[in-house]
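Regression report. Comparing outputs from two consecutive submissions.

Submission 1:
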Amino acid sequence: MNQNDDNFDQHELEKIRMKKMKAMMEAKKRQEAAQERVISVSEKIDFVLRVVLAPEAYSHLTNIKNNEPYVYQAMYNELISPDVVQNIDYLLAIIQNRGGVPRKIPLDAIIYLERKAKGIKSKIQVKRGDDMMDLSSFLSKDK
């Protein structure tokens, strides 16, 4: 009887091990699938950016992405809202049906977002004689 109990215990342990292994493999598959979806969404967003940005604007944005990741992330958050991410497949379908977009976002808009992300204020300089001053000082100066 003791031998049967040992065999039964071994059998039960083996069943438990198999269940745990199966659960671990399923969790790994789910994790890999989620990673593939993230990569896929990222690639789709990159494609949409490539389509809606003018070529020089896209290359400037890519340059910022490579050299200044924090600035890029701030710009990305301005360009890509959560709604865009949720409806990325719909946007792709519209782009494909229409053959692109009628107007592309120019480089000026990307530079504006870059300056905004870096906290650079616009500053217009006025030269009066040999003096350089900003426009607000020039306009508020008593004549």
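Submission 2:
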Amino acid sequence: MKKLDVAIVGASGYAGGEFLRLALGHPHLNVTQVSSERYAKQPVHIVHPNLRGATKLRFSALKDLQDADLLVLGLPHKESSTRFDTFSRKAPRLLDLAADFRLKDPVVYEKYYGESHPRPDLPSRFVYANPELHREELRGAMYIAGAGCLATAAILGLYPLLKYAVPAKGDIIVEGKIGSSAAGNKPSESGHHPERAGVVRTYAATGHRHTAEITQELPGRFPVHLTATAVERVRGILVTAHVFLPDGYSDRDVLGAYREAYEDEPFIRLVTAKRGIHRVPDPKILDGTNFCDVGFEVDNETGRVVVMSALDNLVKGTAGHALQALNVSMGWPEQLGLNFTGLHP
């Protein structure tokens, strides 16, 4: 099989660098070029020391971008949409890791991003890169929009409940504990750097942009109240969500909903242990993996279901689900290049 030639634009960032790491181990991908304005002409391992010896590639400037079969765009917000015409001439397939093409409604985009979309004609041409919800749409897709990491954890945790049960009280409370890398590799609005992990701050108490993705993707239309808190980790997200179900729903009913939705999903693992110390999803054991672990507990007295979902924000939250979506679009085995199971202890 001829390999797919891939160029990664913005490969010095966390998202682009993680896709590069995964692509280098993928049997059907051939990374031909990686770009970075800041590190042009320097070897990849200057920025990504974990890739020392894995590749001889050097970063190139964007002006020197060559044609490829696929462009993976790991650029800051709005760069992909404002430069779409240039990028689409370089490759027939585009995979965007930023937020440019995630939201389909331009009114919602303007509400959450504070300005009109640079190219409102484009989002409808992109398929949202959540294979668990959009597998059929992804088959053969030429343009793929990577999903948000916090949104992915929340969506995968809540989707079965909202698909197979209607909340008795419409409001859904979602709290996400995130590692510092979820904000990118430069100072975030919280002041977080990966080198400074240890300071715990709430940096988006209300109006978090991923709220729009969660609302867009979940069945039904329920008010979602999302809070994100940075914790003492570089990688990882743990979402805790609260949903109230009608009287009569039991643990068995809730478990049945999750099994119905995820029984055949290769990257969703249900955490249902009643004994031991590993009874809830834990981001620590998911570092480097493309798994999302989901668990729950039902308060039978109140009808409240507490849903917990955990993932690595740079893999299943970003580059991994993007590669999984690419595998689906190309007709390759979905788990190709994504089989790492994590480490413990």
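Expected: both submissions complete independently.
Actual: both completed, but the second showed a warning that disappeared on reload.
Relevant detail on submission 2: The first strand starts at residue 4 and ends at 9.
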